[in-house]
Write a structure and sequence with these properties.
There is one protein chain. By secondary structure, the chain is of the alpha+beta class. It has a single domain, classed as Dehydroquinate synthase-like, alpha domain, CATH 1.20.1090.10. The protein is 54% helix and 20% strand. It is built from four helices and three strands. It has a three-stranded antiparallel beta sheet. A hairpin with a 2-residue loop joins β2 and β3. The radius of gyration is 13 Å and the shape is globular.
Amino acid sequence: MPHGEAISVGMVMAADLSEKRGYLKRKDTERIVKILNRLGLPTKVRLDKKKVLDALRKDKKRSGENINFVLLNDMGNAVVEEISIRELIQALNEIS
């Protein structure tokens, strides 16, 4: 997968996680997805979950069972927060 497409999918995942945490409104998540779709970028992807888990175990942003992840607390306003690997895997399942 080209880097730009991976970023697109990551943006959707970040928006979904942000919405679930109450940082972003549903309409903002939908707007992000709509814009990415209009640009012809993917918003879902098929993943080899074993490879993803292996990569997460090696990620330099990981600390124990948590990982630093970019979330949105508003459109255009990103923050880095620690989330559980379990929460990240759940989000990956939703976009694949």
